[in-house]
Structures are given as structure tokens and as C-alpha cells.
Design brief:
By secondary structure, the protein is an alpha+beta fold. The chain has helices at residues 8-19, 39-62, 70-77, 94-113, and strands spanning 24-27, 31-34, 85-87, 124-128, 131-134, 150-153, 156-158. The chain is built from 4 helices and 7 strands; from the N terminus they run H-E-E-H-H-E-H-E-E-E-E.
């Protein structure tokens, strides 16, 4: 159904979609509407939609994309993150500071070159032995700061932080 932009009926239709818990509405011949708790989160959703649309276009250039089966979707949702102990970190070593900075450069580069978007992609780097730093769970990769990375030592995560679910596992 076509409704003029700015029309109350269009606003009501979009509001009804948002009320169902969907934060993005595609408007035929008009663009998209994204809603979220704040402008930053709405922009993150917009970036994710843009990335996904580009990925879909590229997939169609290769042939017909095959959707995941319900079973495959269910399996991917069952990943359970093991609970790690926590520790309060001391001062970071010069090796760790360098690793955090280098990781940040690579993460930002990956976001700029668009092989990843939003919270996609896990980056980790060994600091020494079984100790490493890793990207945090659920954080937009483009906007990570040095202190956002999670230090994992002897199988315990830095207090107050949650590491990415997909990670190299180091036993303590």
C-alpha cells in the first residue's frame, strides 16, 4: 500500500512495526526508518542493515544464496558461553598496551574496509603464555577504545567485562 511520506497513516504503520519489537522498517520507494533507544544505537542498526544489504547483493552476484534451515538456526542459537571466573587486573604491561593499541588499529581498519560491521567479528591477541586480550561481547567494533578490550588470564576474565563468545580458548 502506498502512503505519502509525512502522512499520519504512515506514522501509525511504522509505530505498529516498532511495537512488535522490530527496529527497522523498509519503505518501498522511500528508504528506511530506524528506531532505537538513542541516535547512536539507531545508527548502529542502520550500519548493520547497510552491511547486510551489501552482503546480500554480493551473494546474488555469485548465484542464488541458500538460506539456513531452521535446524541450523537453532544450532547457532544454542552456543553457550562458558562462565569464567573474574579477576581485578593490575597495571597493564608494555606488551599488553602495545597489543591493545595494535588490535584497535586492526579492528578500526576492518570496520573502515567493511569486512565487519557493528558487533561482528572477534579479535584476540595473545599477550603471554595463556593470557590474551579479546574484543568484548556485544560492543560495536568501530567504537571500541583501548580499555574496552577484555584481558583473560589463567581462564579468568577481567572483572566487569564480558569477552566475545567466539574466541580462542586458553586453559589456565
Amino acid at each position: 500500500m502506498y502512503v505519502l511520506p509525512g502522512n499520519k497513516e504512515l506514522g501509525d504503520t511504522i509505530a505498529a512495526v516498532f511495537a512488535r519489537g522490530i527496529n527497522t522498517v523498509l519503505l518501498e520507494n522511500h528508504g528506511i526508518v530506524v528506531g532505537s533507544q538513542n541516535l547512536f544505537r539507531a545508527f548502529m542498526a542502520f550500519e548493520t542493515l547497510d552491511f547486510s544489504a551489501r552482503l546480500e547483493i554480493e551473494a546474488h552476484r555469485l548465484g542464488t544464496p541458500l538460506p539456513l534451515t531452521r535446524e541450523q538456526i537453532t544450532l547457532s542459537g544454542r552456543k553457550v558461553q562458558p562462565t569464567l571466573g573474574h579477576f581485578v587486573p593490575g597495571p597493564a604491561s608494555s606488551v599488553e598496551c602495545t597489543a591493545r593499541r595494535d588490535m584497535g588499529d586492526l579492528v578500526h581498519r576492518a570496520c573502515d574496509q567493511q569486512p565487519i560491521s557493528s558487533t561482528q567479528g572477534t579479535f584476540s591477541q595473545r599477550v603471554d603464555g595463556n593470557n590474551f586480550i579479546i574484543t568484548p561481547y556485544g560492543a560495536d567494533r568501530k567504537y571500541l577504545e583501548l580499555g574496552d578490550r577484555v584481558r583473560v588470564e589463567a581462564g579468568c576474565a577481567e572483572a566487569g567485562k564480558v569477552r566475545s563468545r567466539r574466541r580462542p580458548w586458553c586453559s589456565g
